Amino acid sequence: MTPYASPAKEATGFVTYSPAAKRRPGRIALRVLHYVVLILLIFVFIGPFLWMASISIRPSNESIYTFDLIPEAPTLEFYATTWTEYSLDRAFLNSLIVTVASVVSNVLLCSWAAYPLARMAFRGKQLVFLLILSTMMVPFQLYMIPLFLISLKLGLFDTLLGVIVPSTVGAFGIYLLRQYYQSIPKDLEEAARIDGAGEFQIWAKIMFPLTKPAVVTLAIFVFVQTWSSFLWPLIITNSEERYTLPVAVARLSGDFIGETQFTAAGSVIAVLPIIILFALLQRWFIGGMTMGSVKG
Amino acid sequence: MAWVFLMPTIIVMGVFQFLPMVCAFALSLWDYFPNAPENQFVFLDNFIRLLHDSAFWLSVRNSLLYLLCVPIIVVLSLGLALLVEPKIPGIGFFRACYYLPVVTMMVVVAFAWSLIFDTDNGLLNAFLAAAGISEEGIGWLTNERYALWSVMAVTVWKGLGYYMVLFIVGLKAVPMELREAARIDGANSIQSFFNVTIPSLWPVISIASIISSISALQVFEEIYMMTNGRVGTSTVVFDIYETGFDMGNGGIDLGYASAMGVVLFAIIFSFTAISARKMDSMYAK
To answer: How close is the nearest chain A Cα to the Cα of B79, in Å?
Structure first.
């Protein structure tokens, strides 16, 4: 296995950079080695994507049984064909609609639910919060079966609304925002109340803007989740015009289309928006992913 | 007023989460086909059928085998975290690269890896041939002996960045004075790693283990994409999908699929309950 697998080795790496040990000779060699390992690991983690991207621009007459990353005569024809003929354009639009709708509805609904749970006193508060949290215990794969039947009854089968439905609000988001609302000092809203502002105004004008960091975190979290979500869209959609990107890519890779390049091109199209977003908003991504789990 | 704010969530969650959750348990007691004129209450028949269903037992076995990912993920991601924890120039870029698989969708990740694991055109077999290790193409995804392990490797690979970040946060919380004290007391780096760092990381290790166990028990997409449940790689969730929704595969036996879902719930629930308690007592020591 790779050298970083053994805890002992890491321990050395880790103590190396403690401030007191910086200037000793031999440390430079260690640091060079450290960088070499870090660089090799880049290939471990982005290599498969590079390889897939390289296949997506390789013309059919060139063998894919090669180590060359850049083909002799790179082509974008597979992108053009997947985009138009295999309806990736439609899937892209669907994914965008579904994702944006889920983000907006999560931000609104979770904020509205979290606000009174954090800052108001009313009967049944604990019970409501407990019930909301309890939904985290039941795996989606269990309740998706009745959810499917309910969606059928409501005429949501094979509609984009049906795709959105299970991701409109979530216990995690409510929990996250509730924590944040609790940390806001009381004086602010009291001042507003004296000025005669209504409850909704207080929320919209004062409280909601203050929760921006948590809201952005939640928005990104929901964006990544919904953009990549696969099982539910696979079940609830039936026609090509309703596929989201993951479903469309999975269909491309099915046996009925021979050439791998199409799926490779479709895959690149599917992940590119997320990768660009990640590059731009890196800190928010990583913060959000860990926030919910490490607290507490 | 509070209820006005809560109302949209109560309605949406009620209809699309609570109602189906309750129905799921009820549905597992029925023989249910969406297009049948009449559906029958069969009480525990679905569960009795499960007991004799060897395919389902294989799926349960595979899902439990999948838990082997957990210790591997914990060790490797802790290793990664230690590598990228020191604030040296450019470290943010390395962290971002290792984190990239976490934000990309599993469908694409699984496809990218099946290009590597492919028997005839795969990069891995090409490497093995070039290195003179193995000339004949190994069926990483088509041979019963390797398929499940190959898919598990992909699951681990995709998740490492996430757990790496958890550990970076955890490492920051290890008290510097403790490390220094251990060093002054003459502990070498290995000793201080096992006696100072690891104990302070227990909470993070337990959280990482629980999260990764739950996701390991719910594995679906990589199986669907890479082996489609062939060569004995079906998992419980894949079985639920196949039984309940794969029209090409015998149809839509929703009552039976729900019974599988109830078993899945029972496994996940008892597993998290036990491990949470165990981790707690270890931490308390």
So the answer is: 6
Chain A nearest C-alpha distance from B251 (Å): 13
A286 touches chain B (CB under 8 A): yes
Contacts of B11 in chain A (CB under 8 A): none
Q: Which residue is listed with tokens 């403790």?
A: B178
Amino acid identity for residue A98 in this structure: V
Say if the ipTM goes beyond 0.95.
Answer: no
**Which residues of A are less than 8 Å from B165 in CB distance?**
286, 289-290
Picking from A126, A140, A286 by the largest number of B CB atoms within 10 A of its own CB, the best residue to mutate is A286
Q: Is B98 in Cβ contact with A109 (below 8 Å)?
A: no
Residues A70 and A117 occupy one common structural domain: no
List CB contacts (< 8 A) between A152 and chain B.
34
Chain B residue closest in CA terms to A228? B105
Which of A75, A106, A135 delimits the end of a domain?
A: A75
CB contact under 8 A, B169 and A15: no
Residues A173-188 pLDDT 10s: 999 999 999 988 888 7
Taken in order of first residue, the domains within chain B and their CATH numbers are 41-284 (1.10.3720.10)
Q: Nearest CB to B169: which of A12, A42, A294?
A: A294
Residues A86 and A54 in one domain: no
Interval B103-113: pLDDT, tens: 999 999 999 99
- Half-sphere exposure at residue B115, Cβ-oriented, CA atoms within 13 angstroms: 28
**Structural domains counted in chain A:** 2
**A194 and A245 fall within a common domain:** yes
> Which structural domain, as residue segments, surrounds residue A226?
82-294
Q: What is the DSSP string of B45-114?
A: HHHHHHHT-HHHHHHHHHHHHGGGHHHHHHHHHHHHHHHH-S--TTHHHHHHHHHHHHHS-HHHHHHHHH
Question: Same structural domain for residues A167 and A253?
Answer: yes
Q: Are A65 and A169 in the same domain?
A: no
Q: Among partner residues A125, A139, A282, which is closest to B265 by beta-carbon distance? A: A139
Find all residues with CB under 8 Å of B104, minimum gap 6, and list them.
Answer: A49, A228, A271, A274, A275, B158
Cα distances (angstroms) measured from residue B275 to each of B74, B180, B205, B211: 15, 32, 12, 11
Amino acid at B271: F
Q: Do B20 and A263 touch (CB under 8 A)?
A: no
A7 and A129 belong to one structural domain: no
A239 in B contact zone (CB under 8 Å): no
Q: H/E/C letters for each residue in A103-153?
A: HHHHHHHHHHHHHHHHHCCCCCHHHHHHHHHHHHHCCHHHHHHHHHHHHHH
Q: Tell me the CATH number at A257.
A: 1.10.3720.10
Q: Residues A20, A113: one domain?
A: no
Q: Which residue, of A17, A41, A75, is where some domain finishes?
A: A75
Whether A275 sits inside 8 A of B88 (CB atoms) is no
Residue A108 shares a structural domain with residue A65: no
Q: Which residue of A has its CA nearest to B3?
A: A116
How confident is the model over A66-122, as pLDDT tens digits? 677 788 788 888 899 889 888 899 999 999 999 999 999 999 999 999 999 998 899
Mutant choice from A38, A152, A259 vs B, greatest count of B C-beta within 10 A: A38
